[in-house]
Amino acid sequence: MFDQPPEPAATTTARPAALQQSSEFARALGACGQTPLWLADSPQSPDVLVLRRRFAGGLRVAMINRAPLDDLPELIAQLRAAGLGRTPLILTPETATADLARHGAVPLMSPAHVALLDLAPDPQQRRAALHQKWRNRLNHAAAQGLRLTRQNMPDDPGHWMLAADSAQQAARGYRSWPVPLTLAYARQNKGRAKLFQAFEGREPVAAMLILTHGSGANSAATYHIAHSTARGRHLSAHNLLMWEAMSWLAAKGVRQLDLGLINTEDAAGLARFKLGTGARLHRLGGTWALWPPLGRLLRPLAALDRRLMQA
């Protein structure tokens, strides 16, 4: 377990939207043949991106991931207006939402945590926020004579980082974005998919792909794919690339870097790496299933399971 300061209390300043709720993500999905739906905003709720999937047997499901769901009745009304009023929903709110259980949503998975890194402080503050061991590895990497590069992600499905990441997913039994979706993001959002690489001589030893999204005060970035070779790990190249990415994003006015899910059981080393940057834990709202036509009937079941989401 990693010691973390408590998450700051909510303020009136909106947090930048997650990648899964960005227009950049919607463009990439559209380029891959999917038809995401934007629910128009209202005074009660912000824009919400809805994904639609059709499974074997003709089952249609709508999914809303990492959105603030502060007004569920308004959301259901908008879904009804969009013709999805009788479609089962899978909801993963950005934060805990009490209304879900009251409207018959049934919990499927308890809340996960992501690591969010504030990029607002100046370089000295960011460096001071690093955990000591992380800072030591950064200093070690800086002394190794590595050559760093930054470029837009090449439109190359055979790129060594993508191939290495696909092999790692297969070996460890997890799934991330398919390669065509990653490349579509880069094509549809020029300059928004930045590839950072570290070379020892001519040999690449580490790479990191950062996706940026949003603009102005709502600009943000997401740590998407990274890979380090055995030699790269020996040289602490991943730390040097992360510091380079943090510094570049901050200089571009990006407010927040989403480092993704924290899994202390199956990926403790990666969790330590992410939290070592000075990032804080942010608790998501869990995963819920909601079928509006049966909401009233499912309320008792949802109430019984509500404690699962409060653990």
Characterize the structure shown.
The chain is of the alpha+beta class. It folds into 2 domains: 36-112 and 284-309, no CATH class; 114-283, 3-Layer(aba) Sandwich (Aminopeptidase). It has helices at 23-31, 72-81, 99-102, 123-129, 132-142, 160-172, 179-188, 230-234, 237-251, 268-275, 295-309, and strands spanning 37-39, 48-54, 60-67, 89-93, 106-109, 113-118, 147-152, 193-200, 203-213, 220-228, 256-261, 280-283, 287-290. The strands form 2 sheets. The chain has a 7-stranded mixed sheet, sandwiched between helices. Strands 1-2-3-4-13-5 form a 6-stranded mixed sheet. It starts with 22 loop residues before the first helix and ends with a helix.
Strand order of the largest sheet: 7-8-9-10-11-6-12
Amount of helix: 25-40%
Percentage of residues in strands: 25-35%
Which value, in Å, is the CA radius of gyration?
20 Å
In brief, what are we looking at here?
It contains 11 helices and 13 strands. It has helices at 23-31, 72-81, 99-102, 123-129, 132-142, 160-172, 179-188, 230-234, 237-251, 268-275, 295-309; strands spanning 37-39, 48-54, 60-67, 89-93, 106-109, 113-118, 147-152, 193-200, 203-213, 220-228, 256-261, 280-283, 287-290. It is globular.
